[in-house]
Amino acid sequence: MHFADRLPLQSGASLSAYDLSYETYGTLNFDKSNAVLICHALNASHHVAGVYVDEAGKVIDKSEGWWGTMIGPGKPVDTDQFFVIGVNNLGSCFGSTGPMQINPDTGEIYGADFPVVTVQDWVNAQARLMDALGIQTLAAVMGGSLGGMQALSWTLQYPERVLHAIVVASAPNLTAENIAFNEVARRAIVTDPDFNGGNYARAGVLPKRGLRIARMIGHITYLSDDVMNEKFGRQLQPEQEIKYSTQDVEFQIESYLRYQGDKFAEYFDANTYLLITRALDYFDPAKSFDGDLSRALATAKAKFLLVSFTTDWRFSPARSREIVKALLDNQRDVSYAEIDAPHGHDAFLLDDARYMGVVRSYFQSKVLA
Amino acid sequence: MNPTLDMTLAPSADLLSIAHLVPHGSRVLDLGCGTGELLAHLIAERGCSGYGVEINDANVQACVARGVNVIQINLEEGLSMFGDGSFDVVLQIDTLQHLRNAEVTLVETARVGRIGIVVFPNFGHWPNRLAVLRGRMPVTKVLPYQWYDTPNIRVGTMQDFEALALQNQLQILDQFGLQDGKEIRFWPNALAGRAVFKFQRGLT
Questions:
Q1: Which partner from A43, A119, A313, B86 sits 20 to 30 angstroms from B6, CA to CA?
Q2: Nearest CB to B67: which of A329, A339, A366?
Q3: A328–B65: do the CB atoms touch at under 8 Å?
Q4: What is the DSSP letter of A366?
C-alpha cells in the first residue's frame, strides 16, 4: 500500500512517501473488533502464514509463512476467528520501502542514504496502515523478539488502540552483550570490500561475504549449546577424517553455519541488516524515565501475555520478567509463561505444545472475550 | 503446585471457607495457585483482582484458559518481582509443604501482602498421631501419599506453625482447622486435617 503523507522519523529525518507490503488472513468482522497485527523480527516479512501458489494453483516450494506454526486456520492464532495482518517494516527488503529501492527525492537507489528507523517509527507506520484498513482498535498485537518490542511499543505509543499485547521471547532493551553481537555482525558487513559505504547497489556488487558472517554469528546466538551439541556435536563431514587443515570445512557445524550464511546472503539486504540491528540497539522505552521501566509502562492500558524460553540466552527469561514486574507495578493484567524448551531463542518460531497451548488459551479466553 | 493437589481442595466447602477470609475487592496474589480455581472464584464472587503464581506448565495453561492472570515462576527463587505491601492478601494454599525455603517464602508472603493466608495439611490431626503411634506414617485424604512417594517435603502441626510465626514476628490474626468442610475452632490441632492461618507482619 502506498502512503503519500510524509512520515516523520524519530531521528528528525522523514520519508516523504513510502510503501508498506502487507498480507491479511481471515475476515475482518462487522464491528472490526477481531484484528490481530503480527510484527516481525530481524529477517522476516509480512508473509506470516499460509503458502503461495503459482499460476497453475500449485503450492510453491518453501513458501510457508514464517510463523505458520502459530497462525492459520485452527492454529493458536486462529484465522477462522481473527483477521490477522502481517506487515513488512520500513527499511526491510521484502517489498516495503527500504534501502534497495529508489529514493523518490533523488531518483537513485537509497543505499546508505536510507534514514535510520526505530521501533517507534515502525509502529507509527503500522498505525497508518491500520488507519487505511479502517481498524481503529486492534484486538491484539503480537510479536517475538524484535517483534515483541514492537508489540510492547504499540501499547505505549497507541495505548487506546491495543486491547492485548502478546510479547514473546523479547526484552525491554538490549544488554551490552546483545548490542555487541549486533556490532560484530555490522562490522562483518561494513568491512566487506564490496560494501562501498553502503552504496554497493549503485556499484553493481553485493557485500555477500559480510552478510554471510553476520548471519553465522546471529545463528549461533539463536541456538542453545545443548541443541547445537545434540544436532551436530563434534561430528565431522560424512566419511571424513580430521584433515589437519585450517581452511577446509571439517566439522558439521561449520558446514551448517556456512550453508545458513550462504542462503541468507542470497535474499537479504546488507543495509537492511544494519538498519534493523540498530533499531534493536536503540529500543529502550525506559530511557526517557531514567531507566525506570515501571514508570515507562504506566502508559500502557493493554492486557499482556508474555512468553519466554528457559534456554534463550539472547532474550533471556530474566528480561521478560523485567517487563512482567513493570506491569505488575502498574497493576496491569498480565500473564507470563516461561517455557522450558531446549531450543534457545529459536524456540519462539518452533512448535512446542506448551507454548502453543498457552497462546491458544490466551486468544480463546481473553482476546476473543 | 502439583496438579493432583487440587483434589485436596475438594469438597469445595474448604475452598469457600478460605474464600471467606478474603475481603471483598481485595488485590490477591495466590502463590501456588494450581489451576486458578480459587482465584477465579474470588474474582467472580468477591470482586477481587490479582494474579496466581504457578510453576507447573499444565496448571499455567489452565489458569490462562480460565482467564486468570498467572505468572510462571519458581517460588523457590523468591518473590522479588512483587513490591512491598503490593497486595491486600497473599495466599499460600497447600504450597508451604512443597517449598524448600518455606520460612523465607512465609516472610516474603508477609512482606508482599498486607494479610497472609496459609493453608496446609495439619500433621497434628489425630489420625496422623495415631498412625505414628502405631509406628507408621499416615496415609489420609489430606496426606494421601506414601512416605517414600510424597511431593510434601515437610509436614508440620498447627502448633509448629504458631512457633514459626512467632519466630518471624508474624502476628496471627485468625487460625482454625478445616475438617469435612467445616471450620474447627475447638482443639483444631488434633481435630482438623487442614490448618488455616491468617496473619500479618508484626510490629518490629
A1: B86
A2: A366
A3: no
A4: I
Task: Indicate yes or no: CB of A364 within 8 angstroms of CB of B69.
Answer: no
Which cell goes with A192? 566487506
Q: Which residues of A319-349 are buried (b: 16+ CB within 10 A; e: fewer)?
A: bbbbbbbbbbbbebbbbbbbbebbbbbbbbb
pTM: 0.94
Question: Cβ contacts (< 8 Å) between B27 and chain A: which residues?
Answer: 331
Q: Which of A334, A340, A358 sits opposite B69 (nearest CB)?
A: A334
Element (H, E) at B194: strand B194-201
Q: What angle do CA A182, A188, A193 make, to 5 degrees?
A: 150
Lookup: cell for B105 = 517464602
Are A365 and B64 inside 8 Å of each other by CB?
A: yes
Check the CA dihedral A360-A362-A363-A369 and report its sign: positive
DSSP B4-30: GGGGGG-SHHHHHHHHTTSPTT-EEEE
DSSP state for residue A363 in the 8-state scheme: I
Q: Is some CB atom of chain A closer than 8 A to the CB atom of B66?
A: yes
Q: How confident is the model at residue B203 (pLDDT cuts 50, 70, 90)?
A: low
Residue of B nearest to A369 (CA): B67
DSSP 8-state class, residue B171: E
Inter-chain touch B71–A358, beta carbons under 8 Å: no
Q: Do A335 and B73 touch (CB under 8 A)?
A: no
The residue type found at B38 is L
The separation between CA A237 and the C-alpha centre of its own chain, rounded to angstroms, equals: 33
The beta-carbon neighbor of A335 closest among B64, B81, B82 is: B64
**Which residues of chain B lie closer than 8 angstroms to A339, CB-CB?**
57
The residue among B35, B48, B64, B112 with the most chain A CBs within 10 A of its CB, best to mutate, is B64
Nearest-angstrom CA–CA distance, B157 and B120:
9
* Cβ-contact B56, B32 below 8 angstroms: no
Cα separation, B3 vs B21, whole angstroms: 24
Q: Which of B150, B76, B145, B67 is nearest to B108 (CA)?
A: B76
Nearest CA in chain A to B61: A358
ipTM of the complex: 0.93
Q: Identify which of A231, A203, A206 has the alpha carbon closest to the alpha carbon of residue A219.
A: A231
